[in-house]
Amino acid sequence: MNNIELENILNGYLKPFAIKDYCPNGMQVEGKESVTKIVTGVTACQALIDAAIENKADAILVHHGYFWRGEAEPLRGMKFKRIKALIENGINLYAYHLPLDVHPDVGNNAQLAKLLGIEQKGGLEDGNPNSVAVWGELPEPLTAQAFGELLELKLSRQPLHIESGNDALISRIGWCTGGGQDFIDLAASKGMDAFISGEVSERTTFSAREQGIHYFGAGHHATERYGIKALGEWLASEHGLDVTFIDIDNPV
């Protein structure tokens, strides 16, 4: 497949132009024109690039790419080495950030809900059809301990649990994968019993305790590995491409 054709397919499916983001979505580094083998991963780190070279991939597809707002512009140090390796090996780099978070099927939020058995009901942000934070319900209410154990089982990572201060069962859950911890206040105002994100801030503790909502910090990487994996599986199934997901360990 032509590399521009691949970008058009991804853009048509993920609709990046419908959401304002902090980085460019789509092809970030151009490589060889013909793409037959793709490596997917959460972040375009050096280890993933090295794995793509070893697998003789023509393209890398990630959730976390490059050229973030506020990022230093010079190609030096780590950034230079990464991009140099891509260019020297003719590897195309495609990255989709918020469009992958919010996609209703392969998105990070949707895939986390599927993994945990949560029925997604809608967005937490009123009037925003592309709400980055969402909410849903468990089929059966769980204790906070049981829900924490479910997270650990499914994500292979023990979550940080900040207790709500009450013994109520968890049924209504808000979540935002990755760095969405500040949506906890919105979740509390909407009557959620618990909120999940990947990262935690110092202020998150007091938001949870003072507003009576459980908080589960389940890891930025751990909560976002499933969207990019599902996107790669969609490409393989719908477009016949050779796609390999490579999970580079990240404890954060």
Automatic annotation (TrEMBL):
One Pfam family cited in the UniProt record for this chain: DUF34_NIF3
InterPro entries in the cross-refs: DUF34/NIF3 (IPR002678), DUF34/NIF3_sf (IPR036069)
UniProt superkingdom: Bacteria
Keywords from the named record: Metal-binding
Gene3D superfamilies in alphabetical order: NIF3 (NGG1p interacting factor 3)-like
Protein family according to the UniProt entry: Belongs to the GTP cyclohydrolase I type 2/NIF3 family.
Protein name: Nif3-like dinuclear metal center hexameric protein
